[in-house]
Write a structure and sequence with these properties.
Blueprint (H helix, E strand, L loop, with lengths): L13 E3 L5 E10 L5 E8 L4 E5 L3 E4 L2 E4 L2 H28 L5 H55 L5 H41 L1 H11 L9 H14 L2
Parallel strand pairs: 1-6
Antiparallel strand pairs: 1-2, 2-3, 3-4, 5-6
Helix pairs in contact: 1-2, 1-3, 2-3, 2-5, 3-4
């Protein structure tokens, strides 16, 4: 990346994730000897101070977005695993057609097999990480659901005035939608990983039939209590 003085406008500015939540702020930049931007120093909301590659962040003037590696890593693995599998199958076909020696086949097959095993391990680790992130989303959704319900109760009995109620309600609903969308995308990424690994095991014939059932994007509905309350209170709150 060539030097762009406008990037310095983001120093001290908040860093948001892909769903609009503030996750930290820009502290500084690392520069190469020839004056190019090399990395970004970010202080995350939890107090962690890290050096991030430039590709990890998207800059739009003073607005900075932190790009999650989860979906990008999942996409890479979903491309690489079928590719290595196809190459190994092509290698096997060449061997059966006597176009390459047995020694050469075994050597290259061993190399493909080693790469495939590592990709599978990486996919499983990433799948477990995604499951943890989904569980975190579930916890946040549940907490916000109770927060919405308690907000409605306190507003109903007159403990919270209309203006404060509308402000808090909008804030909670926005965050609930963001977290729900994040969960959907995480579940989709995990399902794609599962389908990719399953396809590698079953082969190309069964893969098409199986992936139809497993690759359907998971349906996710907002928790029942907030949705019911929301519909009930539309006319009253004027939201």
């Amino acid at each position: 990346m060539s030097q762009n003085p406008n990037l310095f406008l983001s120093v001290g500015k908040p860093v948001k994730d892909e769903y609009g939540r503030v996750v930290g702020k820009i502290a500084s930049f690392a520069m190469t000897p020839n004056g190019k931007f090399d990395a970004v120093f970010v202080e995350f909301s939890g107090g962690q101070f890290t050096k991030q590659p430039m590709e990890q962040l998207k800059f739009n003037g003073s607005e900075v977005t932190f790009i999650s590696t989860t979906k990008s890593h999942s996409s890479v693995l979903c491309d690489q695993i079928p590719l290595i599998w196809r190459k190994d199958q092509a290698l096997k076909d060449l061997s059966e057609k006597k176009k390459i020696s047995t020694e050469m086949y075994l050597e290259i097959h061993s190399s493909f097999d080693s790469v495939m095993n590592q990709l599978k391990k990486d996919a499983q680790v990433l799948s477990d990480e995604i499951s943890d992130q989904i569980a975190t989303c579930d916890d946040e959704i549940k907490a916000m659901s109770y927060a919405l319900l308690n907000l409605e109760i306190e507003h109903e009995i007159g403990k919270i005035d209309d203006e404060a109620y509308r402000t808090a309600f909008a804030m909670l609903q926005d965050n609930l939608k963001r977290t729900s969308q994040e969960k959907i995308e995480l579940e989709t990424a995990r399902n794609k990983l599962s389908n990719t690994l399953l396809g590698d095991v079953l082969g190309p014939v069964q893969k098409t039939k199986t992936s139809v059932d497993l690759s359907i994007e998971p349906k996710h509905e907002l928790p029942e209590p907030p949705v019911v309350v929301y519909v009930k209170e539309i006319g009253k709150a004027g939201i």
